[in-house]
């Protein structure tokens, strides 16, 4: 699984589209610029009965959350509870109130989260040409703050690739392309419009939570796989944000080249597409399969983590 | 500031309304039950031009976030950055991608957040009659999970008490009542409808952030102050959720009795009203003052912290 | 590996020695009372050339430290470094000093550490009869503080069981008894005196660090195994402290009964023997094998963690 | 309190002694090289009756530990306790053992601790000429590991400046020099020998713990103050390590120049003297005043924090 010596992301993406400077030299939200107030209203126009779904996965679970290799699960600690009052660590407030309080530690990109555009880079340059050294000691460019300040609101389309392929979940390393997305949409009788927020379900996060898949050596997620055509399609469709139920939104390695996380380079760093990873899509997907409606109002607002590389989010989808 | 010996919350609230069992013995979301799908659509119906505001405060700031006395500020740590790659701690992925990654530690109720209904109690009993011992080692009843699973979505009304009183921010320990809220609404030409989510602006969080107020000994926030009438009004109006720009959503001590955080007992524990605290309302308020429209679509979805007493949120308000 | 239904620690240890109340109803340091000033000097009297060894394992390593199942590795984060100064997060002090600063999170019992006597219990009762509820929200009895205040200083004897059995490390689940300790001492030509601090080397921590052993499902450490005679021997020998290079100082399960961590009950809870776990003994052992001297001055002083169940330590051994 | 524009540490220390390369280009322990095995035995030779003192301050206290401005106190969290078992979060081990477990977060330099030689620098260069960029993302040169591996063991001399000046504690910003140290030693009838580890008591940490002093704006510790003569004296006396009961081992600002923490530059960075800060010396000092013996065996072994800038320690002093 080592990359061809000669092949680098710089060479691979030499002819791929790039939106640096498109929204000005200071832009830090990239393709979210496509999500105008008009798109917010277009998203609301899809709502029929007001049923609401939240797409965040639980964090700091007792068993340990699924996380991308190299990270470690978020943790939850009680600071105050009833037993702590009984043992003399805490005293009731005047009048008699007692309280439970707790602490959470985890990666800024714990659980369901949005990546900042500067989260990954190559050739020492982030989204929009910012220097990689701007990440040192905390993001001073293209961090999560401008994205969290703006929110990600518009029309969402769920593409249930797993169901489309007749499986509970895609297999390890299984891939698909934008052509598959279009066929899936056709089968679901939903239209991928320009500026739609794409929610792609592989069943993977559910399979991890259920223990049917696990994270170990040679971890290789299913997901979208790179082609120049795919990148051009995202660019032409002006896709503002990509949401999946995998840990990294794309297949881990490119099958041919062995390059890793190529779409983080092609879509995030070069086009400014905002990635939301580890979404919980199974309940929503079951509902969509039942009523045959795969579009809705999508609203995500990651945590405003100062200088953060990402922010946890619990996106809302309303049908 | 010590409570009258004879006065306790139990006595004070003996005749106050209580909604335990109203939504079943297992209910953990309380007044959010008022937010039906119908209310979600009612919220959307208020939207005119699709302009979006996010109401979270930044967390893990370099200066240290404002937190209620007894808590401590959230912290942000870089795990990987460009300099770490240069110093040999990290190696580029196959193809050349590098990454920034980071870690956040903080209270589950860090920054803008929703309280779980079991966060505070008296007489050893939480919301809906759950035992206080259910908080031990992690919330097993009335934690934040059911609220985070559901989301808080509906029609929001901003009540700008500070502007109504002609001040940039209320003073330390300054109070107001539901009558003030109604007068403020009248002055703003907005209607508080049954089941409206109330957003109350005091200017306080902005004053803390700007250093005009500070947290020290004898800290005493401005805010709503208890009366039986006020509790009855919240109950009759079926207010599902109370959002303010103070650290604890109410004046810290009751002026007469010295009792502390009485509305946490009267509204949260007894009625199941969900509190969202430390919201950033100044930008939204300036916009509302400019266009004279104080209602909108409100959507909050706190983090799904397993067993948590609360969850951080970055609420979205759309006009 | 499930325990016999009928067998419990209470029954198993019904006739085993117990030192509760021996040093008074308030005692929290147990067998460390054997380490009088006289024993400190006896330890020093063993020193010949002043060569010094430190027995702590590295913590917060990049690869992740070995920890007992259910815990997770300590983590290290930079707060300030040169690159952070260059990126504007920090400013030089008057005169020009810059600084690196960092943060560590981990279990109180991270890396090499001493257990508090109240760390484990059965029948709702800790060492010396303290109630198990005294652990709630933080140790109020038999925590690490009194041990850390006193220190563990005396004559140390290294018993290199691995070398004695001619192996680099004991095998998974391999056991030995106090008779083996005595034979090993004889072979090493060192005497186990009353009140000696016992350092037992199995080679296990080194094997974990080298990747020759790993922590996974069905983890089962080699180590001492329970018998009534062994407990009596520890009691009669007045062993103040047991130090090993395994994660839990004893074989994980009793071979016959399947009971878990029986010596934590028999030696720690009942006799007040202080356990130091995860020591790094390989370098010391090589030196002892070279000069055939297995005794020395031992000095450990765990961190003074308020209300802690344990404290990390970097014990010193001087020959 | 701003530095003279023209004055920098580089100019101030242009003629001061410097021990870079003295112990080789790779040396990371500096003046600890003076602590030979001979010095270890010399330290032991001072011991008369074996009485033992531990010099660490408690960490993660409920009230919040004293820390240098810019840091924040260590925190302690229970992970498991009896109440957590009762509430179903944990289950007894086979046989019936239950356990308390806990987590600690804090600066590597929390509580009583040793600084790594690379902790502070100027002119982009650490101890021994290592590049400041070697601190990026974790210490790769002159971190705490080599010091923790070696330990700090030898003859300790307590110099009780506070008692010498007839005060419970020195005043804010009060200074003293090496001449004062020598006079104090004379008054105490103890000799400062070459290679002695110096423990200097100001009473400050005790005053902070008792609330008689506090950390706020314009914090200014008492302590040693810079002169070229003082630096030469430390060099000629081959002082390996400086231990004090202040947060930073020296007066915060140089009275004349306003330069900050000059001895960190002159002694730590240039001479390789290892600093141990925030020691608890009051109990030891009272004992020394009582028996008029101010020397003893000193043994400190900081935590082996990988890549750390420092490590917590609980030094032992034996008389």
TrEMBL record, chains A, B, C, D:
Q: Which SUPFAM superfamilies match?
A: Putative cyclase (SSF102198)
Keywords in alphabetical order: Hydrolase
Can you supply a Gene Ontology BP term from the record? L-tryptophan catabolic process to kynurenine
| Top-rank taxon | Bacteria
Reply yes or no: does the keyword Hydrolase apply: yes
Q: Which InterPro entries does the record associate with it?
A: KFase/CYL, KFase_sf
Per the UniProt entry, the signal peptide is none
What would be an example GO MF term here? arylformamidase activity
Q: Which Pfam families match?
A: Cyclase
Query: What protein name applies here?
Result: Metal-dependent hydrolase
């Amino acid at each position: 699984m080592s990359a061809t010596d000669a092949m680098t992301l710089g060479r691979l993406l030499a002819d791929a589209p790039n939106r640096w400077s498109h929204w000005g030299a200071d832009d830090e939200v990239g393709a979210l610029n496509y999500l105008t107030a008009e798109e917010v209203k277009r998203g609301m126009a899809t709502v029929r009965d007001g049923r609401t779904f939240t797409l965040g996965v639980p964090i700091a679970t007792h068993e340990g959350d699924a996380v991308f290799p190299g990270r470690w699960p978020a943790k939850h600690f009680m600071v105050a509870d009833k037993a702590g009052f009984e043992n003399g660590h805490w005293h009731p407030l005047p009048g008699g109130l007692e309280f439970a309080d707790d602490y959470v530690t985890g990666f800024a990109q714990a659980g369901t989260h949005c990546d900042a555009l500067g989260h990954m880079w190559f050739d020492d340059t982030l989204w929009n040409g910012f220097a990689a050294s701007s990440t040192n000691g905390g993001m001073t460019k293209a961090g999560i703050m401008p994205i969290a300040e703006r929110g990600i609101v518009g029309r969402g389309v769920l593409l249930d690739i797993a169901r489309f392929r007749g499986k509970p979940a895609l297999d390890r390393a299984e891939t698909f392309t934008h052509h598959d997305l279009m066929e899936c949409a056709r089968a679901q009788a939903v239209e991928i419009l320009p500026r739609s927020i794409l929610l792609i379900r592989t069943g993977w996060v559910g399979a991890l939570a259920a223990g049917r898949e696990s994270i170990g050596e040679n971890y290789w997620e299913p997901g979208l796989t790179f082609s120049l055509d795919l990148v051009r399609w995202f660019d032409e469709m002006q896709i503002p944000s990509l949401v999946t139920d995998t840990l990294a939104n794309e297949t881990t390695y490119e099958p041919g080249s062995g390059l890793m996380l190529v779409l983080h380079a092609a879509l995030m760093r070069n086009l400014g597409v905002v990635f939301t990873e580890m979404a919980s899509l199974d309940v929503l997907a079951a509902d969509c399969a039942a009523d045959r409606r795969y579009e809705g109002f999508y609203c995500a607002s990651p945590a405003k983590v100062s200088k953060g590389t990402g922010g946890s989010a619990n996106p809302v989808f309303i049908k």
